[in-house]
Amino acid sequence: MPSDQKNTRSAARPAGLPQVPAYALPGPEELPASRGPWQLAPRRAALLIHDMQRYFLRPYAPGQSPIAPAIANIARLADAARAAGIPVFYTAQEGNQDRRDRGLQADLWGPGMSADPDHQAIIPELAPQSGDFVLVKHRYSAFQRSNLDQLMRVRGRDQLMICGVYAHIGCMATAAEAFQRDIEPFLIADALADFSRAEHDMALKWVAGRAGVVLGTDQALQVLV
User: Fold this and answer.
1) Which of 152, 148, 126 is nearest to 139 (CA)?
2) N or C: which end of the chain has fewer CB within 10 A?
3) Omega before 23 cis (within 30°)?
C-alpha cells in the first residue's frame, strides 16, 4: 500500500454509531407511492429481521420511538409469518471481527462489536425460534457472502419483507440487491428504525421509486393473517 494511503487511513478516526434522537415512525398516510406493481403473497414471501442486535440498538433511548414501536411491529410480523408458514430469516454480525474480514467497513465504522452478549445478542423480544434461520452478516446487504438467496429459492420464495435497522444502510442495500436478483422487496416502513426521520424517509422514498414496495405493518398483516 502506498505510504500516503497508509497515512490517510491511520489519520482518519472512524466515527462510531451516533446517538439517535427520538422521532415518530411514518404513518400509513405518509408512505411514498411505490413504483413496483408487486402484491405481497404469503406463498411467495419470506421475512428478514435485519441486525436487531444489542450493539446496533444502543443508539436508541429504550422505550421510545422509533425503536420501541418498531420492535413491537417486527414481533407482530414474525408471529404472523411463523403462523402462516413463512420462513423467518435473521441477520446478525459476529463480534471481534478480523480486520481483514471486516474490510472497508472498518474505515467507516471502526472495529464494530465485540463478542460480548451485550453487543452480539439479538434482543430477547425478537429472539429466533425453532425453524428460523440466522445468517452471519458480513456487509450492508444481507445477500453478501450468505446463502439467503439459495435458502429462499429452494423454498419457492421470491418476495422478501425487510424490517430492522438501519433503514438507509443495510435494509436499503438489501432491498436493492434483492431487486437485482429478481426477488421482490417489501420494505416495512414502521418496522424499521434509522439514525433520523430524514434518513428513514429517504430510504423509503428511494426503495419505493427504484427497487421495491413500501408497506406499513398493518398492510402486510392484512395479507399474512
Assistant:
1) 148
2) N
3) no
Q: How much is the CA Rg of the chain, to the nearest whole Å? A: 17
What is d(CA 25, CA 12) in angstroms, rounded to the nearest whole number?
Answer: 34
* Residue 160 exposed, middle or buried by CB count within 10 Å (0-12, 13-18, 19+): buried
Helices 217-224 and 67-83, axial angle in degrees (round to 10): 10
- Name the residue type at position 133: F
Question: Residue 180 contacts by C-beta under 8 Å, 6 or more apart in sequence?
Answer: none
* Per-residue pLDDT reduced to its tens digit, 149-182: 999 999 999 999 999 999 999 999 999 999 999 9
Residue-wise pLDDT tens digits, 30-52: 999 999 999 999 999 999 999 99
- d(C-alpha 149, C-alpha 76), whole Å: 24
Type of residue numbered 213: V
Of the candidates 4, 51, 79, 194, the residue annotated as catalytic is 51
Please tell me the total number of residues recorded for the chain in this structure: 225
Q: Annotated catalytic, 51?
A: yes
Distance CA 168, CA 59 (A): 15
Amino acid found at 198 = A
Cis before residue 60, ω within 30 degrees of 0?
no
